[in-house]
Amino acid sequence: MYTNSTYMLSMESLAIAPSGVYPAFHFGTLTYCFIVFCNVTVLSTIALDRKLHKPMFILLFNMPINDLIGATAFIPQLLVSILAQNRSISYPACYLQALLVHLYGAGSLTILTSMAYDRYIAICCPLRYNSIMSSSNLMKIIIFMWLLVITLIVVLLALVTRFKICRTTIVDIYCNNPSLVRLICDDTRINNYYGLLITAVL
Prior knowledge:
Elements: E1 8-11, H1 21-48, H2 55-60, H3 62-84, E2 88-90, H4 91-124, H5 129-132, H6 135-158, E3 169-170, H7 177-181, H8 189-201
Parallel strand pairs: 1-3
Antiparallel strand pairs: 1-2
């Protein structure tokens, strides 16, 4: 008996000419290495420089981590597809990519919101800034931020696993929740409503 995990999915073609495969692969590899280098540099700078151990920079520390999640979720799989000229992906791998891509997107919004809150306190309540943005409160903000993102996205993708897929073609160049929902022939209104709820919350 077939289950979702046994299916191989076909993603949208990249339409790269044979002569352009290696240039595209090299460009993508260099781009990914550059992204990793820049984000690791930012992480190292904030971690090693005590002058940057302030609320704003500690919140900023989460952004490179989030960027690495997003880049790693998308680029390596794309590079393999370019080199192999094969756009097939297993359902579990597609599901994992969708999970990481949505974590990256939601994480970016919540991190920027936290940084905006920090600036709001600094501008509007400068005399109370140190007490409001204390180390303990800052840690609570960071933990709440990541727990909120992880909970919302895990529930979003968990709703997809309730159904058995009836199609095997992904209409996007990467896996995401809408593309996974389109593989389902059953009623997915609850998924759509929850997706709208997440959009409103974030």
